[in-house]
Amino acid sequence: MTTAPDTTDYRLPDTLQGIYDAVARHLLAQGAVSVATLPHGGIGCAYRGDNGLKCAIGALIPDELYYPEMEGMGGLAVLSSIRLLDFNKHDREWVAARADLLIALQRAHDDAHGVLPRRVLPFWEQRLASIAETFGLRPFTRAMLETCDASTPRA
């Protein structure tokens, strides 16, 4: 297995809203599911897809920290392995809140696999709105992409 580079310069957004915004912005701007050919055949969701796209958790993994052996690992395990989600550094409540949100966001991405391509964006908008409501966050919509610089987090 490839050794991950030093991660001291990388971290997840500090807040649940920041994580949600980063992933929602990414998915809605990308507009398509990240898929790859699976080792046993067929096609499945991927952190880095054959199509050059990224899934929900893949969007949070800097390119410098990604390695192909991550494919097939669970999202929380991947983020933990590159120390972007440090189970030893934070209390259980902090980790649990982020884990629940990350799992919901990844499910939104993966559940769109098999949705007609022209229906992926409406599907994600609906799921992202539901996730925002569940976690008490402000929803992020496609309309916001036009008014929000992708490199600047919302206040």
Task: State the strand order across the main sheet.
Answer: 1-2
Chain-averaged pLDDT: 85
Please give the number of β-strands.
Answer: 2
- The percent range for helix content is 40-55%
Instruction: Provide the domain count.
Output: 1
> Could you spell the SSE succession in H and E letters?
HEEHHHH
Low-confidence stretches: 150-155
Oligomer: single chain
Largest sheet: 2 strands, antiparallel
- The radius of gyration is 15 Å
Our measurement of the CA-to-CA distance between the termini, rounded to an integer number of angstroms, reads 39 Å
How much of the polypeptide forms β-strand, as a percent range?
A: under 5%
Instruction: Specify the structural class.
Output: mainly alpha
Question: How many separate helices?
Answer: 5
Comma- or semicolon-separated keywords:
two-stranded antiparallel ribbon, 155 residues, globular, disordered C terminus, 2 strands, 5 helices, mainly alpha
Provide a quick synopsis of the model.
By secondary structure, the protein is mainly α.
Walkthrough of the structure:
This protein has 155 residues and is mainly alpha-helical. The chain has one domain (16-147). It is built from five helices and two strands; from the N terminus they run H-E-E-H-H-H-H. It has helices at residues 16-30, 75-81, 92-111, 120-135, 142-147; strands at residues 35-37, 43-45. It has a two-stranded antiparallel sheet with strand order 1-2. Helix 1 packs parallel to helix 3 (92-111), helix 1 (16-30) packs antiparallel against helix 4 and helix 3 (92-111) packs antiparallel against helix 4. The longest helix has 20 residues, at 92-111.
